[in-house]
Every structure is written in structure tokens, then in C-alpha cells.
Design a protein that fits this description.
Lyase, Ornithine Decarboxylase, Chain A, domain 1, TIM Barrel, single chain, 12 helices, alpha/beta, nine-stranded mixed sheet
Length: 427
Amino acid sequence: MTIGFHTKNGVLHCDGVSLERIARDHGTPTWVYSQALLESRLREFQKAFAKLDPTICYALKANSNQAVIATFAAMGAGADIVSAGELVRALSAGVPASKIVFAGVGKTEDEMALALDAGVLQFNVESEPELEALARVAKKRGQVAPVALRVNPDVDAKTHRKITTGKSENKFGVEIAHARKIALAARKLKSVRIEALSTHIGSQITDVSPYRAAFARVAALGKELREAGVPMARLDFGGGLGVVYQNETPPDLGAYARAVHAAIDKTGFGLVLEPGRWLVADAGVLLARVIYVKKGSAKSFAIVDAAMNDLIRPTLYEAWMAIEPLRPRKGAKRVYDVVGPICESGDYLAQARKITPLDAGDLVAVRQAGAYGAVMSSAYNSRPLAPELLVNKGKVAVVRPRQSVESLIGLDRLAPWQRQKPSPYLD
């Protein structure tokens, strides 16, 4: 059976299941993930780095659905987390704490305490104040916190300005020029142990050359610190490998692996890698239904039932994402702005997009929506969150149910001094 998303009898399918059937049974908008494709991508990644035997920590921020995390955990993957919530998600999905790295620039002391008690592999510390706070928390608990000092190598990842993280003006990590001083000074802190360096230069990277530069700089610093007496055990090279959405140069996993090998071979360091988007983007789509086709003097609009609250990437990052009808109509392609019902001019999934003719009732799929899709969705305009479905070998499972309007509004409470009146619309 063909895995992933493919056309069969003129209709788009996922792992042998018709997406028209899924839309009929579960409504729209709806997220659909292919478990087989998730597994295939991780196997490919594991194979590329088999000789280095890295700890592969899936970056939960790309897609933190429990079913997705559990799929990777069952194949031996760890987790890269950036909050207490993601820590609980990872542990609940079966990720061993010993394979969890805790990143992020704003860890609170409560979050640190939770992660210490869980026994995570390392804290990717991003500043001196954070290091001092972690030392205080660990000391109070009679523990020694394992630290990977995150280094900002001042390398331009050549990606979108909102997702580059390795330049000196970005908020992430300590500048590489100061990292040696911080690491050496940290030896006085008895409740933390710097045993690794980490770096992450950005997301959606398709050019391997920035990786080569960053990895070489971090590896050189690691060897220097080890020679100076810092107990360096491993290097964490982060993630960020991109995918092809439109006309990007396809990222070469082999070239990426060679860049890692070149930096770490014969150093004796262990290795941590944190892939996210590359594992999940292609494994998901967002299903939507056309409500109206509105023809104006300047352009035509395909108004669909998915919106920027469901998928914010096009508005937030000017992201281009392929949109295709599940059952394309015959005829020359036409130009549409594909927009949603949100009361914002920025509510669009595509602009000036050539698509085969659309009509009300048609179903469309937004491709490569497995990464930074549902995980970034919101209930703006009081639109309940769309469901997430996992498909595997012809079976379909709801892995997050559609939120009801009642449960969404039921989260609100009137203040004690406001008049309480039961709503006829809510149970």
C-alpha cells in the first residue's frame, strides 16, 4: 500500500483511506496525519545517523499531539521541550525522562523543579541569569542539574527572519565569544554541571552551509572546554532541517549528516539532534470545505471553513502551502485567494493561487500541514479547535476530538458581582 498522501481513483487518500470519507465522517476543518509517513521519516533520519548513535529528541513544538509523540517514542526517540506543559506531554506519551532536553529562554523556577524531579537528560541553558536560577533551584532540592550551555554561534541560517535563532541579535543562547568564560565560571556552582554544549540556528533551513559553520564553531569550543577541565560529554546540534513547500531547494539529509559527521567524528563527544518540522510536516494535511466562491472585479475568493485561527503560518510567516481539491474538476486553473471566515483581512490560506475550478461544497486539502499547524491554532472569533485524526493501515482514529462551542465558552466564568443567569444555549 502506498503510504502518506496519494491519489487513488481521482481522489486524494491518506494511507489507503479516502479523505472524502474522512471529511464525511468527521466534518471540516480537520487535521489528518499519516502514521506510516511519520514512522518512515524517523526511520530515514535514524538511518542517516546510525554510525553516530545519537539521542534523537523530537521537537514537540512542531506538533505536540500525544499520538504523534507516542509514535516516535515507540521507535526510540526522545523529546526536545520548551515548557512544563510539553514536559508532561512527553512523559505522558511514553518518552523516558533520560531522553528529554529542556530548551527555551524563559524557564521558570517551578518548571526547573519539575524537570529536575523528572530527571531530564539536560537543561539547555541560554543565559547567565538562567544558569544562576537553575543552580538555586537544584541546590534547594539537593540535586545537581545537568546543563548544556546553548551557544549562539552568530551564523545566518538564511531562513525567514522570524525563525532564525543563531545570529547575535537573536534572543537565543549565549554569544560564543562569552561562552568559554561562562562555562569555566560555572565550575564554582556545585549544584549545576556543564556537561554539553548546544546550538540551534533556526528553522526551515534548506542550505547545509550554515550548519557546517555552526557545528564547527561549537565543536571547537567543546574541545577547548574539555581541555580546560570542563566535563564535556556531548554536543547538541539542535534541528531546523527544512522541507519543500514550494520551490525551495530540497534539503539533502545526506549532506546534513555529513556536516554533523565532519564536526563530531573522532572527538569522542556524544550527540543529540532535535528534528521537528522535517519529521512531521509532510505527514499532515488540513481538510477544509469551500463555503462560497465570491467573484469580484479584481479577484476571485474561495471562502473555506478553515481559517487563520486553524492555520496561522500563511499570515504569520507569509508561508506558501500547497492547496489542492480532493477531487479536482476539469478545466483550466483559475486564480483564487483562499480565505477563511475570520473577521481579519489577514485571514487567508493562500493568495493569488492557481487552482482547478472550485465551487461551493468542494473539499480541499492544505498540504504539509503536519508541522506548526494544529499546535499553533487558537479559538479566535470563538471558533472551536478542529479535531486531529491519525490514519494507520486503513484505520482512522480521532486523536483529539473536535472542541464544542459549549466546552469553549464553558471555560469562562462571570465575576461574583455580575448577574448570574443560566444560558439556554449551554448545558
